[in-house]
Every structure is written in C-alpha cells, then in structure tokens.
Amino acid sequence: MKNLKYIVINQSLKKKWIMSTAIVIFISYAAICTVIYLALYSWLLQNEENNAIRTADDLTSFFNSQNESISISEFQGNTGLFKAIVNQNQTVYIFNQDGYEVLRINNKSSAADIVLSYDQLRKTVISKEVIDNEDVFVVNKFVNIGRFHGVMQLIHPLTTFQSMMQYVLTTMLIAGLGAILLAVSIGYYLANLLIRPIQDLRDSMMSVRDKGFDKEINFAYNADDEIGDLLKIYRTMIAELQSTFAKQQQFVSDASHELRTPIQAIEGHLSLIKRWGKNDPDVLEESISTSLEEVTRMKKMIEELLDLARKEERDEHAVTNVEKVLYSVKEELEVIYTDASIHISTTGEPLLPNITENALGQIARNIIENGIRYNDRKPIIDIDVQYLSKKVVIMIKDNGIGISKEHLPHIFDRFYRVDASRENTGGGTGLGLSITKMLAEKYDVEIDVQSSVGKGTTFTLNFSL
Ligand code: ADP
C-alpha cells in the first residue's frame, strides 16, 4: 500500500490528472449502473412473478367456471382453450390426488416435486427453482374440475428475463468502457491544456537556474485565469530581478572604477609625504589638502551612489509647493556660491504636482548647481515656473558654458562628465544628473534640455497633474 502511494505520488501531474479523472468517472459510473441494474432486476423479476401468478389465477377461475358435471377426460381431449390462457413458454401440469399426471399443457419444462400439503395448496404457492438447468417460477395450486380434485402446477421459465438482464449488463459494460475511454481522452486533453503552461514555467525556472537571465521569457499560454496570472507574475518578477541584477552589476563596476581614481591619488600623496613631506612643510601642506579634497569627493560619490542604488517607492499621495522648494534651494545655493544670482518668476495660479519636497529639491539643486559650476562668467540662473491647466512647467536657464550636441545625449548617464578640467569648482562625480533622471522617472517628470555652447543651457521640467 505504501509502495503504491509512493508510485502514485511520483507520477507526473499529467498522469495523476488522467488517472484520477478516469477513476472518479469509473467509480461514479459503476455505482450508478449497479443501482440501476439492481432496481431493474427486482422490478422485472417481480413482473415475472406477477405474470406466473396471474396465469395460475386465470386458469383456476376458468376451471371453477366449468360445469359441475364436466370430467377431466373432456379436457384431456381438448387443450386448445388452455393455450389461449397459458403462454407458449409456460408449462402446466395437473396431478390427481395420488400425484399422477392427468393433464399437460405445452411441454417446455419438466414438472417440479410437490412436497406441500393440501392445506398449504389451498392458497397459491409460488417458489423459484431450477428445473432442467433453467431458473423457473413454480406455482402450485389446488384445483376442482367438476368432480375432479387435484393439484395444478405452472412452470414459468425465466429465460426471457435472464436474456433481458444479460442484454442490459452487456450494454452497460460497453457504454461504461466507452465512457472511460472518453473520460481518459478528455482528461488527457485537459491535462495537456492546463499542465503545459506549468511545464513551461518549470522549464523556464530551470533555465534561469542553470543559465541565468540570458533567455527571453515567453509563454504561449495567455488566458485570463489563475495559471495565466501565475505566468504573468513570474514574468514581471523575473524582469524585475533581471533589471535589479543588471543595475547591481553596473553599480559595482561603476563604483569600483570611479573610486579607484581618488584612492590612487590619496595613495600617491601619502607616499610623497612619507618620502619627502615629513621634512618639507610645503609638500606636506599640499599633499594633505589634495588628499582631503579627494576624500571629500569620494564621500560625495559614495553618498550619491547610495542615493542611486536606493530604490524607494514612489509616494503616490505626496504633493509639493513648488515655489517654497525652489526658494529654499536658492537660499541654500546662494550661501555656497556667493557670486551666483538666482531669479525665480511664476505665472498662473499655483498648483501642487505629485512629488515629494525632497525629490523636487534634489532635482532642482542638481540642475541649478550645474548651471553655476559649469560657468565661466558670473553665474545667473533664471527660473520660470508656469502653472498651466493640468500641468506645471519649470524652466531653469543658466548663462554657463553650454553643452555641445555630441555630449548632450549622454549627460544623464552615470559618471558621464563632459570635461572635468572646465569645471568652475572641483568635485564633480558625474552622478548628479543620473540621480535627477532617476527621481524624474519615479515621479513621471519629463525633462528636456536645450543648450548652446558659450551661451548657456535650459532645463525644462514638465509635471503633468
Ligand atoms: P557632475 O557631478 O559631474 O556635475 P552631472 O551628472 O551633474 O555630473 O553632469 C554630467 C555632466 O554634464 C557634467 O560633468 C557636465 O560636463 C555636464 N553638464 C551638466 N549640466 C551642465 C550645465 N548646466 N552646463 C554645462 N554642462 C553641464
């Protein structure tokens, strides 16, 4: 039993499905057939019994209706009348009181023994017996024919009933076999239909396990049911994992590559101090301040990398007062860059776009600070906020060095720097605009950049409401 259970459990889902469908249909069919067969059996048998008794009763009434003076020998010569009452498969015997046969109508079956007393025979006695290897009903009854007193015996064979039952059984068996074949075919078709996507899912999982995210995941099954949902969820999960995995790899390689430069610079300066710097205050001073600058840059880079790596969820309910954020960024930057002037103008009735104060502040700060840093004149930044219907547009225009056409498509790439040597104040990491882009994508902010070398750059932020 345990072995059987083990074998069944280890079969494929498809086989289990087909087997269980076939077994369930077989058991239900067998149960229904058994009930129908038994009911039919007892109903038809009862019918046969009633038939035999009715014939016996008809015969006795016929005998009773005859004249008192009629003798048995008159009947012996003419059995034609009886044959109208008795059907051709039935046999009727009439015995005298000594048990001798005096009359026989038809000759299909031999007579049965009469072991009953006359008292018992006053009523109709019916029994089921086997005569000449055949199942029969035997009806025994006491009869009076004129002055003759004797016993009538009716033999009613059950051959018609039995062949009828045989026929029913054969039909049921053939129909049952057909039903099981049909059930197995339908089960096979359904199993194929429903288990194929699960097999595809398993194959895809195995491929991800063995070969990683190389292969594109496509499933032929796209019905709108539980399995369809499962496949969709799996596909999105894998896509997300794939992009997270790719981002992580990119992050590690970018970070290690970019951090190597400041570390090498610090290493160089420390060797310099070790060799000469201890006795030369100028070298010492210079190396220490350059190393400090590098450390500060490294710290900024690490913070920015962490900002980029952190995948915070979008806050769907956040709304922000644009002017309040822009004024606070302006104040903050004017303290750091004292020669820069930042102007803010607005048109229209204030609207509140969906973005957090922190995200908008970071986006604005990165763009404004770039306008100041990449500038060889006195930096002037003009910010124009337009509240339009269902839209807020922020234009940030600087009078900086501008970005040439070939560099413009790349400025949002990680670590992309047009020309580090042209920077007004040191410390650029090439990450500022990547962070800006990441935040803008999170809050569906469209960014457009127009630039002209030597004249300046304009960043346009579009917030749809
Ligand atoms: P960084 O930390 O180097 O400033 P960003 O991602 O902020 O990195 O900018 C990428 C590059 O795009 C900068 O190195 C700079 O060369 C160029 N850039 C960005 N904004 C401006 C601007 N307003 N004017 C000129 N060049 C710009």
TrEMBL record:
Stretches that traverse the bilayer: 21-44, 167-195
Recorded catalytic activity of this chain's protein: ATP + protein L-histidine = ADP + protein N-phospho-L-histidine
EC annotation from Swiss-Prot or TrEMBL: 2.7.13.3
Record keyword Lyase present: no
Membrane-related topology note: Multi-pass membrane protein
Alphabetically ordered keywords of this record: ATP-binding, Cell membrane, Kinase, Membrane, Nucleotide-binding, Phosphoprotein, Transferase, Transmembrane, Transmembrane helix, Two-component regulatory system
CDD domains, A to Z: HATPase, HisKA
Main subcellular location of this protein, as a coarse class: membrane
Name of this chain's protein: Signal transduction histidine-protein kinase ArlS
